[in-house]
Design goal:
Layout (H helix, E strand, L loop, with lengths): L5 H6 L5 H9 L4 H10 L2 E2 L14 E2 L5 E6 L8 H14 L3 E4 L6 H11 L3 E4 L1 H9 L8 H14 L3 E4 L5 H9 L9 H13 L4 H4 L1 H11 L2 E4 L14 H19 L4 E5 L8 H11 L5 E3 L12 H15 L3 E3 L12 H21 L5 H13 L3 H7 L3 H8 L18 H10 L2
Parallel strand pairs: 3-4, 3-10, 4-5, 5-6, 6-7, 7-8, 8-9, 9-10
Antiparallel strand pairs: 1-2
Helix pairs in contact: 4-5, 4-15, 6-7, 7-11, 8-12, 13-14, 14-15, 16-17, 17-18
């Protein structure tokens, strides 16, 4: 039997090569995977033109995945550095890379990225439309917007953020319920400007069927973007955000009718006490589609430390059912991230994802921690370094001090509780 998308294959009972990749690393049965893919509760972003891709699943019952954003801007144009970030992110174990380039030869970089990366690649085509067409936003035609989407599809992009739920009704809701920070989504603000200056509906909402045809042809997963996500705690879970979420749920059902895979993007900046309700609302209003959260950041006062604010929110979100975390670096709100910023952001997000997996009982998640605890009981430092989420940093810290007794660390020395209690209770 033939199929165009992973969802169509699952509905026909076909096990694709990408599904087999997922089954190799996830503790889920073939039957469970096919059922969840059929329902839209799991997605496997896998463009047919991304030839070296290793299939990765996102969704119900799977390990929480982590994404790295990178790409050049006009002020920081260094393609060589961005390719270094790609290599480093892959080395550090990212599950996904989004190219958010907004300047220069974007297609050349995108093609190199896809050729180099075995993990899924995402983009936001509306950014590229502004760069590529080099004319006022209001002068971009509907056909031009879709031509850029098609170009990304042909290049092999596995998932695309499309702000299709930001419609006229959402803008009216925004006007009636004023915000502190208005619209903070870059793609959302571009479409807002286009809609207002042309007095027209969002082209991706009005012509959603046209978008589905492209996605179905190349098996692209639509990441329905949250153009009205909150950009500060005060705007979290407000009327405009929920208005858009309702629209995203309706678009999700339309996509599933055409066997197109969907995930939903979420906030943003959210107080700790509202994170769980945000996850519940998405799962309810979007029929269990995988949830891709941007942080969320739990306070607005920590520029330079937003990898921490987002990791706190990400852990809570993952434990409550979020499926995919977008990393946030220490440079958020301040500058384009450096190589070191990227590492800090990715490690923080990976910690948050793993903590969430333990809390929601993902099979096998806790075993990693138990192995680390066993190594600590034995004071087996090499095993501890091997198991550490960042072995290089762990080793550097341990070896930065000259020790009298190398079996212990410099915190306790001869008063090491682990060594002392082991000797008493185990006799060695």
């Amino acid at each position: 039997m033939s199929y165009k998308t992973q969802m169509e294959a699952a509905r026909k009972g076909i096990l694709t090569p990408q599904m087999r990749d997922v089954l190799e690393v996830e503790k889920i049965s073939e039957e469970q995977l096919l059922e969840s893919l059929s329902k839209g509760e799991i997605v496997i972003p896998a463009n047919k033109n991304h030839h070296n891709l290793k299939g990765i699943g996102i969704g119900k019952g799977l390990r929480t995945k982590v994404n790295v954003n990178l790409g050049v801007s006009e002020d920081c144009f260094n393609l060589r550095m961005e390719l270094k970030k790609v290599e480093y992110a892959l080395q550090l174990g990212t599950d996904s890379i989004m190219d958010l380039s907004s300047y220069g030869p974007t297609q050349k970089f995108r093609r190199k990225l896809i050729q180099k990366s075995p993990v899924m690649i995402g983009t936001v085509p509306v950014y590229d439309a502004v760069v590529l067409l080099n004319k006022p936003v209001s002068d971009i035609t509907v056909d031009e917007f879709f031509s850029v989407v098609e170009r990304h599809a042909q290049d092999g992009v596995d998932f695309m953020t499309i702000h299709a739920g930001l419609n006229r009704a959402g803008i009216e809701r925004l006007r009636k319920n004023p915000r502190l920070t208005h619209v903070v989504s870059r793609g959302g603000s571009i479409l807002l400007q286009w809609m207002e200056e042309n007095d027209q509906e969002n082209p991706f909402y009005q012509h959603f069927d046209r978008l589905l045809e492209i996605c179905k042809e190349y098996d692209i997963t639509i990441s329905l973007g949250d153009g009205l996500r909150p950009g500060c705690l005060k705007d979290a879970t407000d009327a405009a955000q929920i208005q858009e979420l309702i629209s995203l749920g309706e678009l999700t059902l339309m996509a599933w009718q055409e066997n197109v895979q969907v995930m939903i993007e979420g906030p943003g900046h959210v107080p700790l006490n509202e994170i769980v309700s945000n996850i519940q609302l998405e799962k309810k209003l979007c029929y269990g589609a995988p949830f891709y959260v941007l942080g969320p950041l739990v306070t607005d006062i920590a520029p330079g430390y937003d990898h921490i604010t987002s990791a706190i929110g990400g852990a809570i979100a993952a434990s409550a059912g979020a499926d995919f975390l977008c990393y946030v670096t220490p440079a958020e709100h301040l500058r384009l991230p450096t190589l070191d910023d990227m590492k800090e952001g990715l490690i923080a997000a990976k910690i948050a994802a793993h903590a969430g997996d333990i809390a929601k009982g993902i099979p096998g998640a806790r075993q990693w921690d138990d192995r680390m605890s066993e190594a600590r009981r034995k004071l087996d430092w090499e095993e501890m370094f091997r198991l550490a989420i960042d072995p290089e940093k762990a080793r550097a810290y341990k070896e930065s001090v000259t020790l009298i007794d190398k079996e212990v660390c410099s915190m306790c020395g001869d008063l090491c509780a682990v060594k002392r209690s082991r000797e008493v209770l185990e006799g060695n």
